């Protein structure tokens, strides 16, 4: 079965417009697109302001990546029709998948089960790496909640 949204007819520029609007309505600010070497959107960065335990405002920056080469690789492995693998196809697919994921996460937030920053915590960034990347590079040793297999 092909990757989700492989045949989307929506253009990535419109998808990103909806995505930025959804993020802003949820409380994100300072929304910025990063462009890849093809001069196409390769990531979206945004910040949310939260109050810490002392009532001070803290800005938390997040970066949601878009790895077009990985999307192309999956499309190739799945032998998706060439028209979906070329041109803007992979960008349209990738951004639509990201939008769907954000919409699902924001729906969970609407239930008040989770906070906005909780949803995006793996994507918290220091400008170069995300929280998840840092934990993974450290072989998950920074996670005290993990139980050793010993």
Provide keyphrases for this structure.
150 residues, 6 helices, alpha+beta
Task: Provide a concise account of the structure shown.
The chain has helices at residues 12-26, 68-77, 82-85, 89-110, 116-120, 131-137; strands at residues 28-35, 41-51, 57-65.
Number of helices: 6
What strand line-up does the widest sheet have?
1-2-3
Return the domain count: 1
Q: Classify the beta-strand content into a percent band.
A: 15-25%
Sheet with most strands: 3 strands, antiparallel
Globally, the shape reads: globular
Q: How big is the Rg?
A: 17 Å
Share of helical residues: 40-55%
Which secondary-structure class do the elements indicate? Answer: alpha+beta
**Unreliable spans:** none
- Cα distance, first to last residue? 39 Å
SSE topology string: HEEEHHHHH
Tell me what the structure shows.
This protein is α+β, with helices and mostly antiparallel strands and 150 residues long. It has one domain (12-136). Helices cover 42% and strands 19% of the residues. It is built from six helices and three strands, in the order αβββααααα. A three-stranded antiparallel β-sheet has the order 1-2-3. Strand 1 (28-35) and strand 2 (41-51) form a beta hairpin. The radius of gyration is 17 Å and the shape is globular.
Secondary-structure blueprint of this entry?
Layout lengths: L11 H15 L1 E8 L5 E11 L5 E9 L2 H10 L4 H4 L3 H22 L5 H5 L10 H7 L13
Antiparallel strand pairs: 1-2, 2-3
Helix pairs in contact: 1-4, 2-4
């Amino acid at each position: 079965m092909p990757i989700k949204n492989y045949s989307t007819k929506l253009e990535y520029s419109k998808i990103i417009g909806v995505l930025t609007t959804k993020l802003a309505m949820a409380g994100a600010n300072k929304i910025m697109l990063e462009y890849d070497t093809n001069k196409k959107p390769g990531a979206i960065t945004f910040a949310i302001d939260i109050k810490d335990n002392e009532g001070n405002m803290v800005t938390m920056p997040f970066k949601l990546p878009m790895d077009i080469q990985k999307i192309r690789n999956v499309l190739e492995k799945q032998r998706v029709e060439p028209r979906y693998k070329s041109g803007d196809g992979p960008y349209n697919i990738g951004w639509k998948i990201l939008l769907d994921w954000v919409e699902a996460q924001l729906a969970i937030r609407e239930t008040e089960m989770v906070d906005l920053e909780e949803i995006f915590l793996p994507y918290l960034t220091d400008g170069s790496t995300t929280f998840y990347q840092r934990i993974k590079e450290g072989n998950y040793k920074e996670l005290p909640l993990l139980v050793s297999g010993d």
